[in-house]
Amino acid sequence: MKQTMLAVTRETYGGPDVMCLSRVDRPIPKADQVLVEVEATSVNPFDWHQLTGRPWLVRLPALFKPSVRILGADIAGTVVAVGDQIQDFKPGEAVFGDINFGAFAQFAIAQPHMLARRPDGVTVEDAGVVGIAGLTALQAVRDWGRVQAGEKVLINGASGGVGAYAVQIAIAFGAEVTGVCSAANTALVRRLGADRVIDYKSTDFATEQVRYDVVIDLVANRGPRAIGRILADNGRWVLVALNIPRFLVSSLFGRWLLGGSNKTTTFKIAEIRQDDLATLARMLAEGQIRSVIDRSFSLEDVPKAMSYLATKRAKGKVAIRLE
Ligand SMILES: NC(=O)c1ccc[n+]([C@@H]2O[C@H](COP(=O)([O-])OP(=O)(O)OC[C@H]3O[C@@H](n4cnc5c(N)ncnc54)[C@H](OP(=O)(O)O)[C@@H]3O)[C@@H](O)[C@H]2O)c1
């Protein structure tokens, strides 16, 4: 007899109200897959784009009816079964990662490179929210921004899911960090270790006299001319926020608009890499970074968690905790 599980499913593109708790078949891992019992996950703007089908680019694989019924990328839980080809994981191991889809359920299928072991001392909730946001922050600081010790780094959107990790990772890399957020979150960003915090309602960071080596931009509310003014020679503007018009203008005319041939713009999509997940696990275990969890919801309340994320006011991560 087929085993079943609870999952939050959707049949159409739309808002959180198209999601509902359903009983569905429990997935069976193929030879190269791992089956994980989900204990924690979180909501990300990635899930929101997949849910709503906006921007339209995300609908390319399925224009009118989504091909994926169960969303949820971040995951932490326990391996319950592995396919014949899997050598790296075995049942009973505590794992976490980013599986793109399927984590808003009691059980989820993962490709092994999307998982890493959860060390003792890292809670399931802390590991369950780190996936997309942690990978993005690590790759933005280390790979796209090439942040070096002693450099001045500005993080626009420092109190959100990606920003809270980016502040801590940039500090771990030895940078001098300025975070931009609202007054309500300045204390949080300071506690994360930022050297300076700018409240965007009272100060426009783009009119500052300071010159930054790297701007990690999770909001993309300023254009290349404004960013160019605050970038030092060889400065790097790392556009992380998904803003297609801004990305197109910046990639076509960025060098000219930034006001210096040695200033650059980068926009990349974070990659799921097992060694980066392992780096995040080590940083969490050693206390170099911590997960900031604003609110926790149950599986049934994933639609409420998505609605909260959509307010763009979350402080750090919005977690989903399964029984
Ligand atoms: N390129 C990639 O691979 C990739 C990967 C992940 C995410 N992203 C993108 O990165 C962006 C951030 O993601 P996230 O998960 O961090 O989102 P999030 O958690 O929803 O961000 C919420 C935070 O944004 C802050 N914020 C809102 N308006 C702001 C403003 N005008 N200035 C400064 N901060 C502001 C809020 O702080 P206040 O309440 O203090 O305003 C809040 O703490 C999204 O656009 C997402 O799509 C891209």
Automatic annotation (TrEMBL):
<dbReference type="Pfam" id="PF13602">
    <property type="entry name" value="ADH_zinc_N_2"/>
</dbReference>
<dbReference type="InterPro" id="IPR011032">
    <property type="entry name" value="GroES-like_sf"/>
</dbReference>
<protein>
    <submittedName>
        <fullName>NAD(P)-dependent alcohol dehydrogenase</fullName>
    </submittedName>
</protein>
<dbReference type="Pfam" id="PF08240">
    <property type="entry name" value="ADH_N"/>
</dbReference>
<feature type="domain" description="Enoyl reductase (ER)">
    <location>
        <begin position="14"/>
        <end position="320"/>
    </location>
</feature>
<dbReference type="InterPro" id="IPR013154">
    <property type="entry name" value="ADH-like_N"/>
</dbReference>
<dbReference type="InterPro" id="IPR020843">
    <property type="entry name" value="ER"/>
</dbReference>
<dbReference type="InterPro" id="IPR052733">
    <property type="entry name" value="Chloroplast_QOR"/>
</dbReference>
<dbReference type="InterPro" id="IPR036291">
    <property type="entry name" value="NAD(P)-bd_dom_sf"/>
</dbReference>
